[in-house]
Each structure stands twice: as structure tokens, then as C-alpha cells.
Amino acid sequence: MTETVSGASSSTQGTTNGKGHGKGLTVERVFSTPGVHPYDEVTWERRDVVQTNWKTGATVFEQRGVEYPSTWSVNASTIVTTKYFRGAVGTEAREQSLRQLIDRIVKTYTKAGADHGYFATDADTEVFEHELTWLLVNQYFSFNSPVWFNVGTASPQQVSACFILSVDDSMDSILNWYKEEGFIFKGGSGAGLNLSRIRSSKELLSSGGTASGPVSFMRGADASAGTIKSGGATRRAAKMVVLDVDHPDIVEFVETKAKEEDKIRALRDAGFDMDLGGADITSVQYQNANNSVRVSDEFMRAVEDGTDFALRGRKNGEEIERVDARGLFRKISEAAWACADPGLQYDDTINDWHTNPETGRITASNPCSEYMSLDNSSCNLASLNLLKFLKDDDTFDAALFAKAVEFIITAMDISICFADFPTEPIGETTRNYRQLGIGYANLGALLMAMGLGYDSDGGRAMAATITSLMTGQSYKRSAELAAVVGPYAGYARNADAHKRVMRKHQAANDTIRTLAIADSGVHKLATQAWAEVQKLGEANGFRNAQASVLAPTGTIGFMMDCDTTGIEPDFSLVKFKKLVGGGSMQIVNQTIPRALRKMGYQPEQVEAIVAYIGENGHVIDAPGLRLEHYEVFDTAMGARSLKPMGHVRMMAACQPFLSGAISKTVNLPESATVEEIEDVYLQSWKLGLKATAVYRDNCKVGQPLSDGKGDNKGKDSNLATDAEADETPTKVIEKVIYAPTRKRLPKSRVSRTTSFTVGGAEGYMTSGAHDDGELGEVFLKLGKQGSTLAGVMDAFSIAVSIGLQYGVPLETYVSKFTNLRFEPAGLTDDPDVRMAQSLMDYVFRRLALDYLDFDARSMLGIYSASERQRHLETGSYDLPPEETGNASELIESGVELVSPQPVTAEAEVVETKDTHGAEQREVPAKVTTTKAHTSAELLEQLTGTAVDSPLCMTCGTKMRPAGSCYVCEGCGSTSGCS
Residue 877 in contact with residue 867, Cβ under 8 Å? Predict the structure, then answer.
């Protein structure tokens, strides 16, 4: 149990009226403009928010005329309106504008900050209000969902999303656990706890009987969570259950959910409805919690050494039995392979970074494993949108990021002054230790935009420096706040331990090896921040026991229009986007063109690669994309999905710079073995992670898949019943030998000769065609007759000509030989191909223009001078008449639009500015019959493979992974995180 610490937890200085605050903070204006309210710098528009269940066609929400900045996406405005606007729809009490929502939050925070002595003057108070408003309305950061739900309303002012409970070895404590968890679930939040204090089923009670053991009590808690969920909520309860690896009931705990999966299979095969949300799934136990085993260094070393390990009684620590450590580790991995549970939490690593060990050990985490702190505590979260800090030169604006962190940490700490809590013990611990959880989203998009692979040394170095700067700046501000309103009440007894952890963070920062100017600049500021942490912390102490975590950022990630959530890589390269006025379209992730330009690709090449991705959903064999750049576009799902250890290495790069941990699941393919899961768990421990969770595709039977190519109707995709096997006809395999035939050119054929100059080098190309106009031969004349160059080009011409006559498509040659870079290169004398990267690049662009039709060339991004001019004047290269038209007219007619780039409803193509003011062109829309309603469903259509995620219970669409849970990009609903 957490000990109570006496003393004021939020001491104030000066008066509470504004003037005379004493030594409050002097707030610097960084983002907002003096004399201009942040709302006046934004263009506002009215929108109709209508949310439909795609499966049933029923309208589940409707609010007309809501007001949002024009820069906010339809998806963001839909999710915020449905989730966060307060008041009954259709009444005057209902919020109608984002201004009202942000004002409700910001004014509450600002008043509390003034009342509790945070600001030096009234002017500082006003600057704080404007800065916080500017950051929120411009989507630079977001508080966690409970803040938007509750702050400024008549409801309890609950600001925390993460709770850790405590349960002791008594019936009173166990029943109180059920009660406290129920109240937290009722409020839409989740909780975690460690059951290891409860005696095992192998120990005796004081009455002489045998104890039930923690697993038996898990059944009651699971049923309670399921009942509360079905009593009104539209998502499963979010909870984490932890058991120490040395508990005598550890094997029973490890196998609980795996055995239930076997039960699901048996019931499904007997004809019961076992889909998630199905009529019969409620008979299955332990499905409302994530399970984790708390492992010690002693156990992990025993696994490495192949030695025995002791399981100990809870009453006095006596040894109950000895088990083979590798055998137990194998059971854990086998269960995770079968059903994704349990995950591992590394106890010694967690407590080695604990700032309050004199108060108590860290024994558990919140449901998503990012918040790890004292029992009976809570943490409020906020996340920054990293992509907002990417400058025009594609470098990260570390100084601006650091300033934003200061404002956000200040606001988060203020919230504890007025916050309400579900139980008094949680409230007391939180007020005494003031744990905060600042984090970020859009890391995957940021790295891609900077041309850095997620699983690369450069990507990890950038992520590590940003994380280090964030936490260092947070603790620096925490020490500054301690000078103004006092350190946290529990600081005095934990001061040495807290300062020791600060030195550990600083030492970890010193070990970062930067690879470029971009990350070295961030690292320099992080180093300065940690130096200030040591200096100010020694003088003032700290206001907060914890500062940072990396949360899933599910719903709030959509609120900020983030491409990627938390620490995650991009989910896929192709996205599904809703349009103002209705309708939807397919787009290629807008980070991709920016990344390509950053890596030196020319506009024509960018267009070709983007078009290819829009058609295929991946970059493999994209025209002109160099192999060494493929890794930049690796994603969580799809043809080039990241390897499991790529996820682990990224987590390991960031973990030393976080107060808490990271909400993330290491995804493995369906073909992954138990040994691979063992390796992930073992390497995670060696690399210093605090927790690891894994998920093997299609390991859960009761996971409903959307209709289409990925539909398995809740059945095991790689098993067939005996009846099905019997009815399957025997296939006769015939060996077919393919012999290509040569299509020779006629004796007399039409040919053309083209003279050209590339970078000052002159040459001639003669091409001959069949009677149907199809290219059949090419001859190149370069250099003097008899020279080596002339001989090589003659041989190359013969090889290409024979290939054409044997049926190799010209498109194949064009895709392979365009964009090759070598000298001579540069300007040409051809008006259709003004620049060439090599002679081969020019030759095959010219051949494409002479012999390929428009559709084939447009897929390769090759256009004539007249076509490019037409695009600049009309926004269209060469659209057929039936496909032209105003985009809003197409939308109104119910047509869904698809485009590699965003399409506005006002015109076919417009000149727009990106978030940094740079001009960019939009590609015209095409009519599509896609039935996808989310990016996950779109990825399934493009790849023909299933995305193993549940369907949203609100709108019926496929959700996608976010941290260690799932989030619906259609309506913002989550499976347990916010």
C-alpha cells in the first residue's frame, strides 16, 4: 500500500486574485500574436457532422452547423463533435463550436493556475491562456480524453485516464477491488493491479482450508467488467492484471486465456456464435483484461543459464516448489503465441528507474502498460503532434518543441490542483506525487518526412533525442515549478532516489550517438536541458514524481489529424479520407511526397511513385525509387511490414528517456514461431525495456473480420474440418512448359530516327514498329564507330530489341531504365524531356512518349510538354470527358472519390499550401467503386490480405492497432485506451 505523505501538495504563494502572486511564473509569448486572439488567426467554417453505421446504414449521430477551423479534417471534426462536445444534442446547452470546447478547458486551467499562484502577474495569466489556446486550436497537442469529457462541466473534474489499484490478501480488500474497478469502468477509464499479494491455491488459510488463489478471483473481476461494459458502454472494459513470476499459481495464470481460446474453438465448431460481441462469447472467461507476468532479473538469468527457479509462498516467502526456468518461459511464450497473452513486465528494470522507492515499489501498470507508478495512483496524459515541429527545411524545430513542452507540463500540473478522483486513496497519492504523462504522436510520420527509416540507426537516433529533450525539458520545468509552488509532498523522503534517476536519464542522453546535423541539434538542446535539471533540481526539488510516458494516442491522435499514433510506424501508405460535404476518397499518405522531395527526387518522379503507391499500396518496384530508400516507407502492415525486432529496437532507443514506459505491441506474422516470441521477450529484457506485449496475426479465433478478401467469418484461417477435407477433390498437377515465341518485324516497317543531346553528349536513336504500331526494335548510335561505347550500345540495342520481340512489355523496360543516374546527365534539347538523369533515362522516356498510350505513361509519371501545360492550366493532364467535373458535384451524386493526393470539393484541382506554406499541386480525382470505409479495410482491398483487428461496435468499420489496443478512425472509438 502507498504510504500517506503529510504536507501541502500544492502550496500557493501570494494572493489568489491575479496581482501580487509573489514569485509566480513569468510566461513568455511564443506561439500566439500580441494583441490578436488565437481564434482570430484561424479561418472558421460550419460543417454538418453525420455519423453512420456502415454495416446497418443507421444514423448513429447527427449535429448540423458545427464550427471548426477550415484546416481541421472532416474526420477530426466528426470525432471531436461526437466524443467531446457536451450537452444534449438539439438543445441550447449543446456545444456548437470548437471554440466552446477549447474555452471550457483552457479557462478552467487558467483560473486554477491563477488561484494557486502559478503566474506572476495578470499579464502572465493572459499569455498562458492565449498560448494554450493557440496550441490546441492549431492541433499542436491534445490532453487525454477525460479532460475533454469532464473539465468545465458539472461532472466530477476527472482528468486522468490511467489508474493503478491495490489488492491485499483479504476478502475485504478483494471485494473492494471489484468495487473500485467498477466505478472506474463506469466512468470510461481503465485500471491495472498486481494480484501477487493474494495467497496461492497451494497455500493454507488461517482456518486450515486451502486458499482459492488469485486466478479464481480474476473470474469474478472479469465478469464484473463484462457486465458493466454491457450495461451501457460500447467498448470492453480496459484493465491490466499482473502476477509475479515467482507466484506459485503462475502457470495457471499464464495458461488462463490460452485455454479459453481452445474453448472458443470447440464452441465455434459446435455451432455457437463466438465472434467478438457474439451471443455466446460471454461464456468465455478472462477476456476483459490484458495479462502480464512480472519477471525479475533473477528469473531471466535463470532462463539464460537453464537453471531452476523458486516459486514462493505469499505469507512468509517460503519456497513452495522449484521449476525449470526455461520451461516456464516456454509456457509463457506458447500462451502468447496462442492468444497474445501474457505480456512481460521487467520488474527490476522498472524499479531501477523508480523515483519514489522509499514510499513503495512499483508493482503494476495501467491497462496499456505505459504508466507505471505507486499503487493507488493515477496519471493524466497529454501528447504533442511531432509533425507540427518539422520546419520547411525538413529539420526538427527543437527549440519550439521545448517551449511547447514547458507550456503543456505547466498546464498538466495545474490540473491536479482541481482534479477529482474515483477513490480517496488514488486522490491522496496523486496529489502527493503529482505524476504526469507527457508524450507524443506522429513519430512514424515525422521520420518518414525526414527521409529516415523507422528501423534504422538514423530513425532511432532522432527518436531518442526528441524523447530525451521532451523529458529533460519537462523535469526542468518541474524544478522551476517547485520553486514557485513547492515540490511534491513525497519528494523529501525520496529526494536522493529522485536525483539518482535524473542522473541516469542524463547519462543515457550522453550515450546517444547522433548521425546528422538534424539530430545533433536536438541532442544539443536535450543535453542543455538535462544539465539544467541537475542544477535546478538540486536547488528546488521537483514538482512531479513522474513526467513522461508514450501512450497509444488513439482518439486524441485523430483529434490532432496525426498520421501515426504514439511511437508507432505508419499503419499503411494508403489512407481513407472523408470529404467536406460527404463522400470519401483514397489518398496516399501526404508524408510520402515530402519524403521523396527530401531525398532528391524530381517532381515527375514523385508523381510516378505516388501514383504507383496509390495503385498498389506499397513501394516495391515503384518506378524510379532506389532500393536503399525502400526502408523509409516500411509500415506496420502491408507488403513491406517492419520486422518484429524493428519495433523492439525503436522502443529500446526511447525507453531510457521516459519516466514510465511505452504502450506498444510487437506485431508478428501468423507464421511466427514460439521461438521468435521467446527471442522478442528475451531481447526486450536485454535492451532495457520495461514491458513488452506481442500479437501474432490471426491468433484469436473470436476476432471478426470485415467482409471481403480478408473475411474468415470468425473461423481459423489455416484449419479445415474433416468434412471439408473429405469433400475437397484431389487436384491433378500438370507440368506446363512455357515456350515464348518471337514476333519478328516485317521486312519493311515504319521507323523513326530521333537526334538528341543529353548534358552536351549527342546521339541518335532509331526505333522500328510492327504493323500494329507496337515497338519492335531500338538502335542507339553513340560515340565513334569501333569505339568501346559504340560497341556496348550496339549490344544493348540488340538485347532490348530481342526482348521486345519475345514479348517483354515496353512498360517494363521504361520502369527499369528511367531514373537511372550516371553521366552524361542534365539538360536535353527535347521539349518533352527537359532534364535527364542519364542517357538511358532519356531514351526510355522518349520511347514511352512515342509508343505508349496516355494511361500507361501516366502510371509511370511520364507526360509530354503539352500535357504538363494542360495540367497547370486546368488541373488535368488528359481526363476523359465522362470523368471530368466539379468534385462537389461528384460528391453530391453519391460518388466516392479516389486520388493519390487530397481533392477539394470546390474544384477539380487547386493550388494549395501545405502546413508550412509551400505550394503543392493536387492530382485530379478518379471515380472508384471501393467499398472500404477505413484505412484498414482499404489495405485489405489493395493487398488481398486480412488486417487482424476487431470491428468497431459504434460504426461497424474495421479498427486499426494503436499501441496495445485498437482505435476506430471512423468514429474515434477505442478498445480500451483514450
Answer: yes
